[in-house]
């Protein structure tokens, strides 16, 4: 890849436009902000259950904060690349892109990175996957479930992936729009493709293939993005494709890594899961990753908040994010050659971890991760919502999948199945002539787009726990 050729202003189905007031990448940002898919994130769980008395982060606030950090990373990296890379500095169009537009590309990609995640946190993905795994031999019209799909399609379903669904949400055709409602630039899509491969080539030993990034239905999108942005092939053929990561992905990933690790600590403090002393001990060393920050300065500023521990943790959170952002930018610039070549095998945060250990500095990031797993992600409130997500998604798939598969299969639907199918909004476009795989994906479009409250309410209605319009 080359710095001057790894971006494009083109987008599917549209000619490049010149607008003196709004760049093509700003239009990507605007389309995302005003979309219903983005708005629905406000009622999707991030980690902790949606708030009652204490406000914690949901997918919407998380995405906005990741976009804010991503914009800063893009701005700092863009400026440094112009200084460090003569091929950029001497190329007028590239100099303009890295100084003025890279930050918007990264911010827009950050906004979109969680659009494919179902309700109830990451357990929503696992719940959908486990349903297909557990029901592989179940008979639908005297035919085992697995027999409705090819091997490649079945892998998509038993390893259901929110990253792949995000690309589907952003690119699947809608109504009269051949290329989908967003029609994001190829550059923005490249920055979102954290795992640029299909499900048959994911490999947990490789960072860029630890998961997969597109369903079979969108592998042509992966090909188009790779061709337009110069992403390098990494094996595969036919229905299974893989590419090296695009360099901009590392900045989107870093923004996400920084936010969820730090913000989860702040939420845990607000909920009383972690004490003030524990959070301060974890956050303060991260603040010092910014070489302009000293312990004396931190102590002075914290003293100004007196005994307001929430305000003190909020200040430390902001400084920790600032320190981590500057440190990850240093990692990107230091490793920019291998990042561009597609041979860099670590996330920027992991590279920072390694550097801290080599220099004999306290590896607080690893400690943050360990405490998050032990005390936050396994907290009873988090576990309860994950278990609820399993039951709810399994229940909804039990109701809807059979009627979806049998539609147009030569088997008449029962009255119950007809009524169940009638609850799926027509906008999802499930048709008799579609393959079982395409019909199933369109059903999953419906289910994965649900907010937590809507999924719960529908599950309770369909199971007779709550009757619509009747309240105890």
Strand arrangement, largest sheet?
1-2
Tell me about the largest β-sheet.
Answer: 2 strands, antiparallel
H/E element sequence:
HHHHHHHHHHEEHHHHHHHHHHH
- What is the number of beta strands? 2
Number of helices: 21
Query: What is the average of the pLDDT values?
Result: 87
Strand content: under 5%
Low-confidence stretches: none
Radius of gyration: 23 Å
Could you characterize the architecture of this molecule?
The protein is globular and about 75 Å long. The model has no long low-confidence stretch (mean pLDDT 87). It has a two-stranded antiparallel ribbon. It is built from 21 helices and two strands. α12 packs parallel to α14. By secondary structure, it is an all-alpha fold.
Task: Summarize this entry quickly.
With 472 residues, this protein is mainly α. It is built from 21 helices and two strands. Helix 5 crosses helix 9 (186-192).
Topology readout:
Blueprint: H1 24-33, H2 36-39, H3 59-84, H4 86-89, H5 92-112, H6 123-134, H7 151-158, H8 162-171, H9 186-192, H10 219-229, E1 233-237, E2 240-243, H11 249-270, H12 276-287, H13 295-304, H14 309-334, H15 336-341, H16 348-358, H17 364-376, H18 380-406, H19 415-422, H20 436-448, H21 452-462
Antiparallel strand pairs: 1-2
Helix pairs in contact: 1-5, 3-5, 3-11, 3-14, 5-9, 5-11, 6-18, 9-10, 11-14, 11-17, 12-14, 12-17, 14-16, 18-19, 18-20, 18-21
């Amino acid at each position: 890849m080359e710095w001057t050729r790894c971006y494009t202003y083109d987008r599917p189905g549209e000619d490049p436009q010149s607008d003196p007031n709004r760049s093509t990448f700003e239009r990507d940002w605007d389309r995302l902000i005003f979309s219903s898919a983005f708005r629905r994130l406000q009622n999707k769980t991030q980690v902790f259950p949606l708030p009652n008395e204490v406000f914690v982060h949901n997918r919407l606030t998380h995405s906005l904060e990741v976009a804010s950090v991503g914009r800063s990373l893009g701005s700092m990296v863009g400026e440094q690349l112009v200084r460090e890379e003569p091929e950029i500095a001497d190329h007028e169009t590239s100099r303009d892109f890295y100084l003025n537009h890279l930050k918007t590309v990264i911010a827009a990609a950050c906004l979109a990175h969680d659009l494919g995640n179902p309700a109830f946190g990451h357990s929503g993905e696992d719940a959908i996957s486990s349903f297909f795994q557990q029901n592989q031999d179940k008979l639908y019209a005297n035919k085992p479930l697995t027999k409705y799909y090819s091997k490649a399609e079945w892998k998509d379903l038993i390893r259901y992936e929110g990253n792949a669904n995000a690309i589907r949400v952003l690119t699947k055709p809608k109504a009269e729009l051949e290329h989908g409602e967003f029609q994001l630039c190829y550059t923005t899509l490249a920055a979102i493709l954290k795992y640029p491969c299909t499900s048959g080539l994911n490999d947990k030993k490789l960072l860029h293939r630890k998961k997969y990034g597109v369903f079979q239905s969108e592998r042509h999108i992966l090909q188009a993005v790779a061709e337009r942005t110069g992403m390098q092939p990494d094996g595969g053929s036919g229905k299974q494709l893989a590419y090296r990561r695009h360099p901009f992905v590392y900045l989107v990933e870093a923004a996400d890594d920084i936010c969820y690790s730090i913000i989860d600590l702040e939420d845990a403090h607000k909920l009383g899961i972690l004490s003030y002393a524990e959070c301060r001990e974890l956050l303060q060393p991260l603040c010092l990753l910014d070489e302009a920050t000293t312990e004396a300065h931190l102590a002075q500023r914290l003293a100004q908040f007196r005994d307001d521990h929430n305000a003190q943790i909020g200040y430390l959170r902001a400084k920790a994010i600032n320190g981590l952002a500057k440190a990850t930018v240093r990692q990107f610039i230091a490793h920019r050659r291998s990042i561009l070549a597609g041979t860099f095998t670590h996330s920027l945060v992991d590279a920072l971890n390694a550097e801290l250990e080599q220099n004999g500095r306290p590896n607080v990031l690893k400690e943050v991760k360990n405490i998050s797993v032990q005390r936050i992600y396994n907290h009873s409130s988090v576990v309860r919502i994950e278990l609820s997500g399993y039951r709810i998604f399994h229940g909804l798939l039990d109701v809807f999948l059979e009627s979806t598969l049998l539609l147009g299969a030569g088997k008449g639907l029962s009255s119950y199945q007809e009524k169940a199918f009638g609850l799926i909004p027509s906008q999802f476009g499930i048709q008799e002539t579609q393959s079982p795989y395409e019909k199933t994906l369109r059903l999953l479009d419906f289910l994965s787009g649900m907010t937590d409250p809507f999924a719960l309410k529908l599950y309770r209605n369909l199971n007779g726990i709550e009757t619509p319009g009747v309240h105890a």
